[in-house]
C-alpha cells in the first residue's frame, strides 16, 4: 500500500460519502468520515472493532469482515449498538488485493439513515453540511425544514386568530360601561348552567329611582352610579355566579347552587341594603334602591330561559307593586295576585 494512501482515500471519501468507515481485514476501523464520527459520538474511532459498534441484522452473513466482503454491493441493514439502537442502511465495497489503494482484505462501509433520516437529524444534531451535497437526504432536510417553518408559521397564525376570536367574542359579550357581561351572554350562560345539571336561581334586578338621578344630576352621574352598582354586584357573587347587564338599569344574576328561598332572600336583602347607600358624585349625592324578582330552576321540569325570565319579571313587578326596594320570589299563583293588584284589589302576597 502506498504511503498516505489511506489518508488520501479518506480525504476523498469524506467529501463524497461523509458517513463512511474504512475497515481492515481484522475488523478494525482505520478511518471514519466526519458524519460517522459525529453519529458514533466518539473521538477515538481509529482502532475500534467495527463489530463492537455495529450489528448486521440483514442479510445473514458469515462472521467478520469476510462476510462483509462476500456481501459486496448488497443492501445491508445495521444497528448501531447502544441505548438508542439506531437503525442504519449500508453497503460494503472490498479493497482489491494489490495493496495499492487500501488495507488488503479490508472494506469500505458506506452508511445512511434511510427513511429515518429526519429522526436521526434531531437525535444526532445533524446539519446539511453533514451529508454529501448529492445525497437526497439534503433535499429531505430542506423539505422538512420548509415544512417546519410553514407549520410553525401556521400555528402562530392560528394562535393569533384564536386569540383575536377570543377577544372579539369577549368584547361582543361585554358591556363597555360596566365591564359586566351584556345581554348577548344571557342565553349562553343559561345553556351552560342547564348543561351542568346543577340547580340555579335567576334574579332580575331593576334599579329604583335611577331615572331621577339622570334627570337631576345628569347622565355622567348615572353612568357613575351604574359602575358603582356593577362593583357591588361583583363583590356579592361567588365563583360560578354570573352578573349580566341586560338593559339600561336592569341586571340579571345567575346564582349557582345557592338556591334555597332563605339564602336567596338573604342575598336579595343584602344587595338592596348596599344599593340604598348614598353614592357621592362631584359633590352631590345620588340615591337609588333596587327591586328584585327571583325564580329557581328547580321550579321547572325543564328550565327554559324565556319562561324563567318571564317568571322573574313577574316577581320583579310584584316587588315594584309592594313599594319597591324589596325582593320577591316567584311562586305559583303570583300571576293572579299581580293582576288583581293591577285592578285595585290587594290580596295578601
From TrEMBL:
It comes from Roseovarius atlanticus. NCBIfam families: GGDEF. PROSITE patterns: GGDEF (PS50887). This is GGDEF domain-containing protein. InterPro entries: DGC-Regulatory_Protein, GGDEF_dom, HNOB_dom_associated_sf, Nucleotide_cyclase, Rev_trsase/Diguanyl_cyclase. PANTHER family: DIGUANYLATE CYCLASE DGCT-RELATED. Residues 198-332 form the GGDEF domain. SUPFAM superfamilies: Nucleotide cyclase (SSF55073).
